[in-house]
Structure formats: structure tokens, C-alpha cells
Amino acid sequence: MTTQIKPGLNVKQRGAAVLLVSIVLLIGVTLVTVFAARVGVMDQRISANEKRHTEAYAAAEAGLDETLSYVRYALGNGRDLYDTSILHTCDGTETFSNGKTYPCNVGGTFTHVYDLNTGTTIIEKISMVADLDVGTFSSYIFYDDSKGEITVVSQGNSEDETGSSTIQNSITKVSILTAGPIPPIMAPISSLTGSFTVVPNPNLKTTGSGVPISAWVSTYNATGDFESCHAGEFLFGAGTNDKGYDVCTDLPDEDDWASVTCQCDDDHLISDGNNSIQGHDIVVEGPGGLPDPYTYVFGTTPVETLEATSYGVDDCTNATLAGVQSLLEAGGLRENYSNRVWVRGDCDMQSVGGLTRLGGKTNPIVLIVEGETNFQGGAGHLWGIVFSFGNIDVQGTPTVHGSLVAAEGMELGGSGNYTQVYDEDVFSSLFSEELNSTTARVAYQYCDSCN
What we know:
Number of strands: 27
Largest sheet: 17 strands, mixed
Distance between the termini: 91 Å
Strand content: 25-35%
Helix content: 25-40%
């Protein structure tokens, strides 16, 4: 029996198979497209949420920084942020004058509250007109008298106001300089080889009874024409003395120093490099024996806090230092930065001699240098403290009425004609509450998204 296959049957079966495969592929592509679209939409939503969160968080951080600057300015200008007569209790949800609300019980019950957005006598009491509600953030200050801390709270919003972030951080008043006496020279390594004179603090001590200290170092390699003497033996040198004083440290005016020549009485030296006499005013601790100079001078103040609360400059050119001196004399550095200047990078003070004077007896400067510090100028006078994170090199003929301090591992050296003179007025001013206090964030008191 012969089986006959009709022409075209295999073709029809193949066509059906192709159609079925095409339908399956089409369904698969459709599902992948739908899934990809859903993922794309989700990614867009996630990106949008992240963008709103970033905007809100940045705005809240801006409010925190703005309020911290506000508090520093107020305290630096003698404003009383602790006057309880203008405060009220905040417990629960507080509605402020700008119409916004804040849950005060986030950080506990705040007994004393400042609303920085009001136009009432609260702002007038602090004598600073400041509206910290700028649309994207709103900041408030709470004072907890049981802790002696100010809590800054900031709410930030995204640009479309659909996202928000609330952060808070406690700040408190801290001292910048430690209460301990600072010697004229404090450096792990001292290698002065020129002609230098030091008139130390007669009451300074590191251990035991009070003795004058010229240099407090780990390693002492100084040579050359070195001498030190008490303030009463630092006398006018040769030439005409028309100032009416026999002792140079009795000069009442800083500018008088620019026209006088002073020297130690050779018969009353404490240390004498010419005769290889190293007196008790040179304290050598040995390698590793000197306390960390930064901690000794600035205590537990973080470096970032010190920089943030100091007036920043990029260099020590004549123009820069002239501008700094102008700010000092005008009171701008005192009001806003407590006379602290932060030099970003090296400080080549060739211009100190040209300026004649930087700082003053009752208006001294604290110069903090990130890099190397080089004295190369003429017979200029600097009143205050110079702290250098790098080496200090003295090649010029400066006179420092205060202290030179080099950071841990650094060296204070040079071959210049250097003079350092203790001045009681300088340190009294530097350790006064006006110049020796600032506000800083309290560690471990930061709260992000605390609402």
C-alpha cells in the first residue's frame, strides 16, 4: 500500500511552529519591556527621593552652620544667650513665629528656647537682626541650663518642599588656649645658631618651684651668641635713650620698640652661649619627653575647630599681614575670630620688618601656620603667639613678644638675630575670656533625621 503525502502539509506545520515561537518571543519581550519600565520608574523614584533627601539634608546642615556662626558672633560680641528672662518652656510641639512647627521633645524637654525667626525683643536682646528662615531651612536655638549647653536644631527642606530633614547638635563654650603658662620657645628640637636673646617669664614653671624658662625642648642643639636674662636686666643699649626708661620691658607703647636698641646686662645673664653656660632657664626633656606642643597650648580643641574659628589667609605677604593688622586695629578680628589667624600653607614673614609691628600688647595675635614658618624680615615686632605645624626658621631680625611653638616632631632653628621678650600684658589679653573662648560642637551630640 502506498502512502501519499499531500503537497504543502510540512510547510503549514512549519508555519504554525514559527507563529508559536514568535508569539512566545513577543510575550517575553513584552514582559521584559514592562519589567524594565517598572525598574526604570522605580529607579527614577529612588533617584528623586535621594535628590530630595540630599537637598533637605544639605539645607539642614546649612542651617546648623548658620546658627552656629550666629551663636559665635553673639557670644563674641558680649551678647548674653543665657538670659532666662526672655526664654520660655518648649515641651511637645512648638509653633514658631514663622508658622513652622518643631517637636521639641526630640532631644528632651527644652526649658529655654530662642526663636531666631521672630522680630521681637529676643533678637533685639542679642543685638543682631538675623532671619534664619530662608525658605530651604529654619533653625532654632535651645538652651539646657542643667547641662550648660546650647542645642542647635535645624529643619531643612528640598527645593520642591516635599522632602525634609531635621538635625541637631549641642554646642558649648570652650577655651582655646590652656590655662598653663607657655614658654617663649617650645619645640621638640631647638637648633638656633645665630645671635639670639630671650627674656623669659619670671613666674613660669614646668615642674617644682617657679623659675624663668626660655626654652622647653626635647633636644637642644643651639649654639652661637645666645643669651638670656631677667626682664629687669634687659636694658637700653648704646646710643641716646630719650624714652625715659632704663628697662626696655617698661616701655608702655608698642611703637616705642621700633626706635630702640635693647640688650641683656652682661653681668646678669641666666644663660650665656659665649661662655657655654646653660642656665636653669633651658629645660631639656630628652627625646620623647616633651608634652605634645599642640595639646599643651590648645588642650583638647580639635584642629578643625581651631581652623573653623580662626580668620583664614593664604600667605604671609606684606599685603596680607598689613590687612591682618588693619583688622586687628579695627577690632574685626577680636569680634569675630578672637584675634586668631590661620595661615593655609607656609608663612614667609619677610614683611614683618616692613610692617614694623604685628599685634599689640593688649591686642595680641595668635598666628597658626599649617606649614613651615620663616622669619626673614627686618627688625619687626610681633606681639602674640606663633604656632607652626611645620618647622620654624629664624633668619631675619624679628622680636617676638610672646611665644614661638613648633608642633610635635618639628624643629625651631635658624641663624638670624632673634629676640624674644616676655610681656605680661600679651598673655593677660590672650587668656582673657574675650579672646580665649569660642563655641564648639559637643562630641557625640549630633542627631541626623531625629524627627
